[in-house]
Write a structure and sequence with these properties.
The complex is a heterodimer of chains A (431) and B (550). Chain A is α+β, with helices and mostly antiparallel strands and 431 residues long. Chain A is built from 15 helices and eleven strands. In chain A, the strands form three sheets. A five-stranded antiparallel β-sheet of chain A has the order 1-2-3-4-5. In chain A, strands 6-7-8-11 form a four-stranded antiparallel β-sheet. In chain A, strands 9-10 form a two-stranded antiparallel sheet. In chain A, helix 6 runs antiparallel to helix 12 and helix 9 packs antiparallel against helix 12. Chain B starts with 8 loop residues before the first helix and ends with a strand. Classes of the chains: A alpha+beta (431), B alpha+beta (550).
Amino acid sequence: MARFLIRRLFLLFLTMLLVSVAVFLITESSPGNVARNVLGSFVTPEQEASFLNQTGLDEPVWQRYIHWLAGSDWDAERKTGLSLVRLGTGTDFREWWARTGDGRLVRWKIQGDDLIAIHRNPDGSLEETLDNGRWRGGADRAFFWGIDAGNNAVLWEKGSKGEVWTFVMGTGWIKSTGGPADYLPLKKGFLRGDPGISLMTGRPVQKTLFTRLRNSLVLAGIAFILVMPLALLLGIVAGVREGSFQDRVLSIGGMVFSVIPEFATGIFLILIFAIWLKIVPGAAVFGEAAPWERLDMLILPVLTLTLIELGYVLRITRASMVEVMRSPYIRTAHLKGLPYWRIVVRHAIRNALMAPVTVIMLHVNWLMGGIVIVEVVFGYPGLGKYLLDAALNKDINALEAGAMILVILAVGTQLIADIIYMFLNPRIRYT
Amino acid sequence: MGRKTHDRAIIKDLKYEMDKGNLSRREFIRLSTLLGLSAFSACQLAGLPWPGSALAAAPRKGGILRVAASVQKVTHPAQFSWIMPSNQFRQVCEYLTLTDGNNITHPYLLESWEASDDLRTWDLNLREGITFNNGDPFTADDVVFTFNQWLDKDVGSSLLGMLGDYLEPTGIEKINDLKIVLHLKRPELAIPEHLFHYPALVLNHRTFEGDLVRRPHGTGPFLLAEYREGERVMLKRRGDYWQKGPAGEPLPFLGGMEFIDMGTEMAPQIAALQSGDIHMIDLGDASGTDVFQALRNDTGVQIQAAPTAGARVLRMRVDVKPWDDNRVRMALKLCQHREKILALSYFGEGLEGHDFHVYPRHPEYCPKPVPAYDPARARELLKEAGYPDGIRVNLAVGNGWSDVVRFAEILKQDAAPGGFEINIQTMPNAQYWEKWTEVDLGITPWAHRPLGTMVMSLAYTGDAEGKPVAWNETRWIDTEFSGLLSEANGTLEIEARRRLFCRLEDIQMTRGPVGIPYWRNVWMANRKILKNVKPHPNNYMLFNDVWLEG
């Protein structure tokens, strides 16, 4: 059993790796200009190039992938020759600083042709000093790899380029030859728990991702807890009473609701209950409240999900139940004189549940990402909508992080399903 | 500059024109306030009563206004490309001027301004006694810093194209803490209107370092309490705001504002507005037709229309076949049935357009007859151009604007008898904005601008080297047109400008690259418990004096 689990965990990690590579390649080759999505349509080619440089999108694909997976700080440490440290300051602004030989935290900025070092004292205050001694290279082309206030490792150069006018407050317009030539955004990488900065929001991905995940879990969780027992129960009843009136009603009702697409069901429910009858809100507007604090806003989305899943699981359970009730061992138990309900509960159900459990586990998968349609119809801030926006905007960090979560869920639910099978059917053994 | 503004020759000329009947009173007020006359004096000279500013009912203080709007990534306000972030940050920071719903520009953070007779020297006088929300005083240094941010090409603001055309950083002169003089490279009339362009928020030169969310220091009536991209913005009332209400009471009335990002689908936002979960939908970047259609008969929702110079422009790239041939362009323009397009795609809410980018309520508009729908002539022109059997073309539209899609569908039907077989290519709006300057035939939504010259300079000219400017999506440059336009930009006298515009409009109608079937109204949709909302053609939320009832 333990070896089985370990092997499955290993396969989980392998799947995550392969999926991350696939998502990367697909996003890479899909159309869409990230600079224009973020900066607006009216950017000049220089601004576009600068944006791509600053977000690290001008690096080759394999390099971007390695940086996403394993981080870029070791690469930056190699270039700058200093060790790098990440601090969290205030409310979720992160800052990267370099640690110099004497243990002080430093960042740099450039003003005209001068390199200014910003030291951070232990109490958080900042001190600025002139630091032109760090320029390397000759007089005609000096360069320096440092850290700037935008959490990037920057290659500053001076001397070689043409002159550039920069405005310095207090001094006015001055001519300088210094300027940034290359950027390397700093991050720790997915393996160390840092999914990176979202291109859409400019802030760390996990900020938005975990809120959306929590919201989706709440919605999906409530729907799951409500629907699954109900669907199983109704399916068993329908299967046991095959051909009866209840069976017909449940079967046809289930089929009707599972066939109507979720956006149609959702819109009809909004129309009937929110607009005509006005008894529940028709859209999910949470503001700062968590979903469980505004349960009235969850009623319609959950009802929509319920109606779709109910029909589907009910019919599979019914079919499985019917098949099991026809099998010889059930007839034997009947002839032996066992009470009817004991046969059903202790013998039939356990065997009939194999098929529904498979379907239910697949539904868990769908509940996480596939409810994007329900989320869009109700304006519900969930994971599906987040991934949709990320995909439309080619926000690679958000997409990868979301994809990894979905992979974990998919593989995890398969694992749980396999374990449940073992309990349902003792003949199944895994080596 | 010692004379009083209302003694100046220009104002006297304008008054003469008005009395003769060449200038409407409304236009007189607009132009004279642009030149620095106070709105009160302008109304007096025009013989209009000064509109009373008493409020209709006693305002109730407090309450949080909930608005559905998209919450985008914001760092530098001068880089704004969309109106919604400006609606959120205009409550925290402010502008030097204010152009209201009637296209009249008032001083705001400025106390007053004065222009020289040749329109090349502008004196800007700052208002005294204003502080930023972190305690710093508002002085000329802040204005100089902000101007330089706009003109800094590393910032990459659209204001660089707008102001950089006539202003260099060396032309900004600080006289004292409350006065600045601008020395322009060429005469320009519309500076006060440019200062209200939505990215032109005034920044605190002591603390601003490129990220406004991190240091949200502004002179506005609200403080930024929380900013979560893609989720919500929370603004809280500020105690020491400089503006006072009409009876002298402190502003703002609202206790706070909450902007909630509900995604791009209109259905949940409409449902939430109907049920009262939100009080308003920000329609600044949306077309609003869905909201209008769904809610115009709703008793709990107030929808106010503002006529605007915003239009859906059918644009053709003149450097690509077949649109390089003017006969083909004219043929397609003749296939627009304007009345039908306006009625079917926009519920008749707007004015019919003429295929030139000057709005009938712009002051320099020269009246022209609306072109008729003429597919027979279109077919003839196509035959002349070498397409006797008609021509097949692709039309790119963003599917998020339902009225644009309707326009395309109607055009497709109406252009078929004219010989055009149009293939409509719909795509998500984001994708359209990626290629709006590149497609050969598309429909681009253009926003309202208060002056006729503004869009002309932005979209139909070339730069000093003869290359089309950044927003010239059609690549159309006509030397006669550009010459007339520069002349118009420096002409104050309204009749002369109108004569120039008669010729400009003719040029665009006969050989221009765009088809404009209608000018649309925009709507402001809010719950009726929100009082004192005034519609604005750009959907700006000028909400210092609104309040929530009950």
